[in-house]
Amino acid sequence: MAHERYDCSPGCPVEATLEMIGGKWKGVVLFHLMEGVHRFSELRRKLPSVTQRMLTKQLRELEDAGLVSRTVYPQVPPRVEYSLTDLGQTLRPVIAALKSWGDRHGRLGVSPKTSAA
Predict the structure, then answer these.
(1) Which among 73, 112, 68, 113 has a CA at the least distance from the CA of 87?
(2) What's the pLDDT at 16?
(3) What does the pLDDT read at residue 66?
(4) Count of CA atoms in the C-beta half-sphere (13 A) of 54
(5) Which of 115, 108, 26, 12 is CA-nearest to residue 62?
(6) Which of 9, 50, 13 is nearest to 29 (CA)?
(7) Residue 26 and residue 32: Cα distance in Å, rounded?
(8) Rounded distance between C-alpha atoms, residue 104 and residue 56, angstroms
(9) Which CATH number fits domain 11-98: 3.40.1390.30, 3.90.1010.10, 3.40.50.450, 1.10.10.10?
(10) What is the H or E stretch that residue 69 is in?
């Protein structure tokens, strides 16, 4: 296979990138944040299958990776907004490419062998 010619031993750039954006929900969260600033409740509505605990965990990991910014407004009730950082913005072409590939090949229930054109 062609990808075998790339050196992707532990610590390689692909592994590092997937560590930052991998997981069931991180890519989808990043995709929605490409639209602009979202409150936690807005993200929950866009991801009805994710639990509050899991969404919180994924957002914290994205924040720790420097991809997402969390802004807390001191009001009652507190308002928390999430947005892409400058580093997170650099993932736009990556997330767009994943969406494009998924539009062509990643439909649920469709085998990649049957959907390839």
Answers:
(1) 68
(2) 81
(3) 95
(4) 12
(5) 26
(6) 50
(7) 10
(8) 30
(9) 1.10.10.10
(10) strand 68-73
Phi/psi of residue 37, each to 5°?
Answer: -65, 140
Residue 116 vs residues 2, 3, 102, 108, 111: alpha-carbon distances, Å? 18, 19, 11, 14, 9
Q: Which two tokens stand for residue 45?
A: 């509505």
pLDDT computed for residue 116 by the predictor? 46
Tally of residues, the chain: 117
Which residues of the chain have a pLDDT value below 50? 1-3, 114-117
Q: Is the pTM higher than 0.85?
A: no
Tell me how far apart the alpha carbons of residues 81 and 69 are, in angstroms, rounded to a whole number: 8
Pair 81, 39: CB distance under 8 Å: yes
* Residue 38 φ/ψ, nearest 5 degrees: -135, 145
Q: List the domain boundaries for the chain.
A: 11-98
**pLDDT for the residue 6:** 53
**Is the dihedral angle over the CA atoms 50, 56, 61, 66 positive or is it negative?**
positive
* Cα 102 from Cα 75, distance rounded (Å): 40
